[in-house]
Amino acid sequence: MLGKGFGLFTLALVAAQSFGCAHKPPPAPCTETEPVRVALKARQTLNPDESGQSFPTIVRVYLLKNPSTLEVAGADEVLRHDRDVLASDLLDVQEITVRPGATETLTFKRPDLASAVAVVGLFRAPVGNTWRLLTPLPAANADHCHEPAEAARPHVTAVLEESRISTGP
Where are the alpha helices (DSSP H) in 21-160? Predict the structure, then answer.
């Protein structure tokens, strides 16, 4: 016959095992792919004329399969014939007018083939290649729907100042 101590030990062991297994089940997978968020931050000096007066600027944001076509395209080509120039690399585009000092955020549904984001400013006097910003698109976060703080953070932040675009914080 086993002693009373063995019975209590067995009961304690069973209780410990059941508490050890009582953990929260993993969250359900997100039903939609994480969207792409692009923040546009305009400085007060934006798209100035000859006298230094700032003006609103039309900005186009593109989701691309491959950025190589845009890397070699000129500002005038993209301004006038963006869909022809980007052709099969173009997955989506949004156009917005950004005012000096304003911040805008654009959200895109993420296409499976998207590998890059391009931000293009239609400036009065573009200089070099600073009229555009090309950046790789980070991989989608499969748990984005469970992380509200991350869900609001932009993937790309573009700063528009004078007649140029650069990456920002």
Answer: 68-72, 75-86, 148-152
**Which residues on adjacent β-strands are paired with residue 36?**
108
Domain boundaries, the chain: 30-167
As a whole number, the mean pLDDT across the chain is 88
Task: Give the residue-averaged pLDDT of 16-29.
Answer: 68
Q: What is the pLDDT of residue 26?
A: 78
The greatest distance separating any two alpha carbons of the chain, rounded to the nearest whole angstrom, comes to 102
From the number of C-beta atoms within 10 Å of its C-beta (0-12, 13-18, 19+), residue 60 rates as middle
User: pLDDT tens digits for 136-146?
Assistant: 998 888 888 87
Q: Under the phi-then-psi rule, with left for phi > 0, alpha for psi from -120 to 50, and beta for the rest, what region is 136?
A: beta
The Cα 117–Cα 35 span in angstroms is 13
The CATH homologous superfamily to which domain 30-167 belongs is Type VI secretion system, lipoprotein SciN (2.60.40.4150)
